[in-house]
UniProtKB/TrEMBL annotation:
<keyword id="KW-0560">Oxidoreductase</keyword>
<dbReference type="InterPro" id="IPR006367">
    <property type="entry name" value="Sirohaem_synthase_N"/>
</dbReference>
<dbReference type="InterPro" id="IPR036291">
    <property type="entry name" value="NAD(P)-bd_dom_sf"/>
</dbReference>
<keyword id="KW-0627">Porphyrin biosynthesis</keyword>
<comment type="pathway">
    <text>Porphyrin-containing compound metabolism; siroheme biosynthesis; sirohydrochlorin from precorrin-2: step 1/1.</text>
</comment>
<dbReference type="Pfam" id="PF13241">
    <property type="entry name" value="NAD_binding_7"/>
</dbReference>
<dbReference type="InterPro" id="IPR028161">
    <property type="entry name" value="Met8-like"/>
</dbReference>
<protein>
    <recommendedName>
        <fullName>precorrin-2 dehydrogenase</fullName>
        <ecNumber>1.3.1.76</ecNumber>
    </recommendedName>
</protein>
<keyword id="KW-0520">NAD</keyword>
Length: 172
C-alpha cells in the first residue's frame, strides 16, 4: 500500500540520477523545496547544464555508484536505462533511502505525486497499485479547480501558536 506523505526536504540532500528532461524536472522541484541537490550523470541536457554551471546543483559527471547514495534522504532514478534505475532502487533499498524510479514506479520505494498549490495548501494525488499517471494528473487538475473556485471551506482551524482553535486550555 502507498502512503501519501509530505516530507520536508529543505536543507536535506537529494540525489538525482540522470541528465535528461525528467531529471531536470525532478532536480528543479527538489531545489524549489529547498533541497541540496546532487546530480550524477555522464552528460546533462541544457536545463540541467545551466543549473550545474550556476552551481545550483552539484554535478558529478560520471555513472552513478552505490556510494553516491551515502547520506542522502531521497534519490530519484531518472535515467534512460531501466537497468541503471533498477540498480539505484536496489541500492536505495539496501541503505533505507527513499527512492523514486521514474521509469518503473513499482521498483522504487516512493512515488512522486501530481501536485498543485491552492493558496497555502499543497494538494497531491498518487495512484496505488498499478501506476496511472494520466488519471492522477486529471484528478489533481480537477481538485485544484475546485480549490480555486472558492466553493471549499479553506479556513484555518489552528491558531498560529499550533494549538487547535476553540479548544480550552486544561487547568493544572
Amino acid at each position: 500500500m502507498t502512503t501519501l506523505l509530505g516530507i520536508e526536504l529543505s536543507g536535506r540532500s537529494v540525489l538525482i540520477v540522470g541528465g535528461g528532461p525528467v531529471a531536470d524536472r525532478r532536480a528543479r522541484a527538489a531545489l524549489d523545496d529547498g533541497a541540496r541537490v546532487t546530480v550524477v550523470a555522464p552528460e546533462l541536457d541544457a536545463g540541467l547544464g545551466g543549473l550545474a554551471a550556476s552551481a545550483k546543483v552539484d554535478w558529478r559527471p560520471r555513472p552513478v555508484r552505490p556510494e553516491d547514495l551515502d547520506g542522502v534522504w531521497l534519490v530519484q532514478a531518472a535515467t534512460d536505462s531501466a537497468e541503471v534505475n533498477a540498480a539505484v532502487a536496489d541500492w536505495a533499498s539496501d541503505q533505507r533511502v527513499w527512492c523514486v524510479n521514474a521509469g518503473n514506479v513499482e521498483q522504487g520505494s516512493a512515488r512522486t505525486p501530481a501536485t498543485a498549490h491552492g493558496d497555502d495548501l499543497l494538494v497531491g494525488v498518487v495512484s496505488v497499485g498499478s501506476p496511472d499517471p494520466r488519471r492522477v494528473r486529471a484528478v489533481r487538475d480537477q481538485l485544484i479547480v475546485l480549490l480555486r473556485s472558492g466553493r471549499l471551506d479553506q479556513r484555518r482551524h489552528r491558531r498560529l501558536d499550533g494549538r487547535a482553535a476553540g479548544r480550552e486550555r486544561l487547568a493544572s
